[in-house]
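Lab notes, practical 5.
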Amino acid sequence: MVRAGLLWLSEQPRVFRFVRRNRLAARFAARFVAGETVDTALASLTDLKTAHISASLDLLGESVARPEDARAARDTYLELLDRIHVAAADANVSVKLTQMGLDIDERLCVENLRAILQRAKQYGSFVRIDMEGSAYTQRTLDLFTRTLYPEFGNTTGVVLQSYLRRTAADVEAMILLGTRVRLCKGAYKEPATVAFPEKRDVDANYVACLERLLDRGNYLGIATHDERILTHAKAYARGRGIDPSRFEFQMLYGVRRDLQHDLRRSGYRVRVYVPFGSHWYSYLMRRLAERPANIGFILGNVLRESLRRR
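Output from the prediction step:
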């Protein structure tokens, strides 16, 4: 019932108009989304720069249905890369394939991605190919391994999700390919046939994949706010003599900023994923709908961070 209600809310433009006018709702959204424009996204990097934390900028919006919208998203990413370069900001970008037109025409998607990757390569930057729901996992990895990585190498990298049963095998394939991997748990609602339904199994798979990627993988993005896993990752790397320059911790904008700063002060590399764009309302509602438990997760993390600051 909670999931259905959140999905219904995500499709109500009148609710969105109300939310945009509501100061409390806008303040809540501003904690997790860096505004609606390229300007606000880049402005959000100031505090991260002061804390010596890197960023990955993510234009919200997926499942694009019109070619002109896919090209507009491409152009926004090109502008982002230009302005990151001019500002000498410690930031890269993250892109979803359906935002580039994958559901319309794969050739359009590849055309848009090539333009972004060529610009990033020109600047010595990096483009993370984001992972979406399980219906897109194989298509994403196929396009990445057959087209994008052979052409652009480590200008690009991919995301793997530990809640999927297939991920251990995908880890081995990405190690063999030699690409950079961002490992996250995954937040989409998936059937038990393809994803572990129990959190303990998702966590166990995360740890197993984490250890394998630290041992044999290319530069790893450890994307989690789970303090137990963070502690294990640090201890495992120390025990294996793995230099901190071979990996980084990645967290979401506005979530556990205390942990972000603690890790950075301890000498670890930290990157924050910074979402922005006009689709922020639908984005927040859909993310919560995919796993309603995320409501408690977000509010709990805000509370823990607030208590630590007192």
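Observations recorded by the TA: The first helix runs from residue 2 to 10. The CA atoms of residues 78 and 119 lie 7 Å apart.
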